Amino acid sequence: MSNGAGSMIEIRDLRKIYRLGKVDVPALRGVNLDVPSGEFLSIVGPSGSGKSTLFHIIGGLTPPTSGQVKVGGQDLASMTDADRTRLRKRTVGFVFQKYNLLPNLTAGDNIAVARFLGGNNGRPDAQFAEVLRLLGIEGRLDHKPNSLSGGEQQRVAIARAIVNRPAILLADEPTGNLDTATGRAVLELLLAQNREQGATLVLVTHEESLANSADRRIVLRDGLVVSQ
Fold first, then answer.
1. Which residues of the chain fall short of a pLDDT of 50?
2. Is there a domain that residue 2 lies in?
3. How far is residue 107's CA from residue 18's CA, in Å, rounded to a whole number?
């Protein structure tokens, strides 16, 4: 483990316990991890290993039970709710496993809202128009999510995540509902954000080939990092 210098994400003794009735269920049992700025990190592990919990805590969506998480040098626990919201709007791009698109807005408006919340009110540039073309959704922007296939919704979610060129991209199974060719295109787009834009990319996946394409691969099991 590094000493944290130059790290975009620093995690120390991170623990998360969920209370189910009268039973405590530990999801994370003391995770320590540094992710240097600009690294592509993949996280693998069996279902229930704590991958999604770690994903949500890094993004400031779920508070830990104990331990410390710093993102961009900022301690999430010491930030106000408004500060954490601002971090999610401007610094972190999310690709959720369940998309989380706003159902009453068109695909184009879902992307536009992300631009607005990130403080970018101008028209998308030619480079982003090319992203939409590569994702195959440039002709689907007037459709609401319930008129899109699962794969199309996933691609809209990816466009929304990268539209503001965030410093950190958190992706949870980003190719899970895509055919092989589209999955490859999505991976190339995420890698471009990492390699060309310098984004730190943290990817949760069950796909070994995807995990092995990362700069570093860590394995979570029973809420602990068992190899990295």
1. 1-5
2. no
3. 34
| Contact partners, residue 6, CB within 8 Å, separation at least 6 | 36, 37
Instruction: Give residue-wise pLDDT tens across range 81-136.
Output: 899 888 888 889 888 777 788 999 999 888 888 877 776 665 656 667 777 887 88
* CATH number, domain containing residue 129: 3.40.50.300
Domain count, the chain: 1
Amino acid in the structure at residue 96? F
Which of 191, 209, 211, 210 lies closest to 201, judged by CA?
Answer: 191
73 domain-assigned: yes
Residue 162 within any structural domain of the chain? yes
Q: CA–CA separation, 171 vs 173, rounded Å? A: 6
Q: Which residues pair with 34 in a beta bridge?
A: 10
Helix (H, G, I), strand (E, B) or coil at 143: coil
* pLDDT, position 127: 65
Q: What is the largest CA-CA distance in the chain?
A: 55
Region of 73 (left: φ > 0; alpha: ψ -120 to 50; beta: rest) is left
